[in-house]
Amino acid sequence: MRFILVLVAFAVTASAQISYQKEKQLYVFQTVSSTMVLGVNEQGDLQTVYWGGPIPGLTDFAAAHSTPERSSFDPSPSRTREEFPAWGGTRYFEPAVKITRADGDRDLVLKLAESNLTQTTATLVLRDIKDNIRVSLLYRVWPELGIIEKHAVIQNSSQQSINVESAQSGVWSMPPGDGYRLTYVSGRWAAEDQISREPIHPGTKILESRRGNTSHNANPWFMIDDGRADEQTGRVWFGALGWSGNWRLAIEQTPYNQVRVTGGLNTFDFAYTLLPGMSLETPPFYGGYSGQGFGGASRTLHTFERDQILPGGNMSRLRPVLYNSWEATTFHVDEPGQKALAAKAASLGVELFVMDDGWFGKRNTDNAGLGDWFVNKTKFPNDLQPLIAEVNRLGMDFGLWVEPEMVNPDSDLYRAHPDWVMNFAGRPRTELRNQLVLNLALPEVRDFILAALDRLASTYNIRYFKWDMNRSFSEPGWASATPIAGLKTGATPDDQKKVWVEYVRNYYDILEKLRAKHPKLEIESCSGGGARIDLGVLKRVDEVWTSDNTEAFDRLRIQEGFSYAYAPKIMSAWVTDVPNMNGRSTPLQYRFLVAMQGALGIGSNLNKWSEADFTQAKSLVDLDKRIRATVQTGNLYRLLSPRENDVTANQYVAQDGKQAVLFAFRHSQEYDLPAPTIYLEGLEVGVTYNLTYLDGRTEKHTGAYLMNSGVNLNLGGDFASTVVVLSRL
């Protein structure tokens, strides 16, 4: 089949951020901090020509050419840096798409067929050399933010059904070479976001989730440097996937020194049948480049998230100071007890009061009640209105904990609809935390959850849902007679594997419809801690629960790893009682200052606090309100890492440069040695700053002095902490 490339361009000018160079058949994507160039080679393949630092002109780039065959074991397709390789022909490395046709043919070879460009978007359509199977590659550029998005739509326009076995969002290709390093996070429950950095060797490393949500064990982002980058300097390529279900990143170095990252839907237990006329859209895969090290890469991501990912963008409000009742009352909630806690929280300056688990159904322990989203009239005989009215009278918004995707077998919902949970007929239904997972891929389950949450938001003056998910999937099947994703009844086993995709789509659908009907409603994504944090859910929620581990010293490393990819504004961080999870006790000031580096929350049992605790906490809440705009929306500089130093230091600089905030923490004192000098970043050299210390002392220094001579802080003793506020004069 011969291909004729059709180019359609609308309003593309010389200043366009996406442009096409006809003579060389090059597509150029420009941002303030990066350039990506794709080309069409003599075989009609779309290949990556360049991705890296900004190169403004087109004259430097030659036309794309396929890499010649070196031997019968080194064919050209396997050596060419294709932008979206299909599994077909002589391609032996990670494919971006793999299919099987109904007649058993599994070969798929894609050539560029047409393209459509605007100033900031592009659609490049690939088509199989024989069948009318198309893959539309969709790109978007945020030129001032340094981010390029890519994802794919796989369209079956042939005459037979196809089974998609791999559906990736895209491939990010580094410049040819070796010596690259990969930075990523790993972890587990209560120990999320642990930074790992390692050389990339020949072969493939897989980062993934198979749990149905994003998972505690890994997170769908990467950073790759050339082996020489540090926090402030060096070449760093980065990417992040927007998907809250099973995902997969394949970091691959081929024998030809080609390093690339292929990311999208996890191929594990995956199959997606497309009947003629059907399509499958993959999640967005965002990428960028920084010439200012890992810190520069993080700041680019943070700005993009605040401006373009979070609901409301940069117009969304600063995260309020929150109080949550869980540690004070656990399941034993009632109107008098919650009112008493609300009064104490309000005295601290709390702005959002959240009642946690235990308010609904027969919920006295974790073994009953999930799914029955009606107020427990024994605990709240007057319903929730009097409590909410009192919380509002005290000057606070009201929030409520929910876990709508789960059900206890001991619940009215399960007794009425046992077929709604994930299960394989005749097989065990595994309970974790005494609960089962509702199959949100089913339309009736989706509609039930939406109706339940809508009823709560419509009946009560609720500003905030803390949406929890306290277990992973198991036995992810359903009755074969249930309609699935556009198919008729009588689904095949492969059709049931659509659960991994349709579950997430329906979850997103609920969030979007709920927010559309209740525009002031805010939602927190929680999943036993940080198991559902990614750029997909962040388009639909306002903040995330970082970890169930709120122990302040442990949180320094968790929060550092979190900050590599995610902005402090979305990072819920609580002050809780001690001794905490691991038996460690730290001072109240230390716990507050750790939590004030994100969205401050208080989860302590205020009924046990002393007068001195209240006095100190109120002072620190007042300080948080004076600096939170800088912390939540400013530029973060990680000055000293808890992974490498006894002292941890983080600095935040306001977007307008008028304020900066320095936090510092010391683990322990040894040999009466002073804490190291801390060198600040991101200040203006010739500007004088007023420094206000936590004890009220003030000093004046220039930006040049603070960045080159640094500051020396009094961090004596174990678990010492301080904060310094800088104001530009």
What report would you give on this structure?
This protein is α+β, with helices and mostly antiparallel strands. It is built from 13 helices and 37 strands. The strands form six sheets. Strands 1, 7, 8, 9, 10, 12, 13, 15, 16, 20 and 21 form an eleven-stranded mixed beta sheet that branches. Strands 22-23-24-27-28-29-30-31 form an eight-stranded parallel β-barrel, surrounded by five helices. Strands 6, 11, 14, 17, 18 and 19 form a six-stranded antiparallel beta sheet that branches. Helix 4 runs parallel beside helix 5 and helix 7 packs parallel to helix 9. The chain is globular, with a radius of gyration of 27 Å. The protein starts with 5 loop residues before the first strand and ends with a strand. The N terminus is likely disordered.
Q: What labels would you give this structure?
A:
single chain; disordered N terminus; 729 residues; 13 helices; eleven-stranded mixed β-sheet; 20% helix
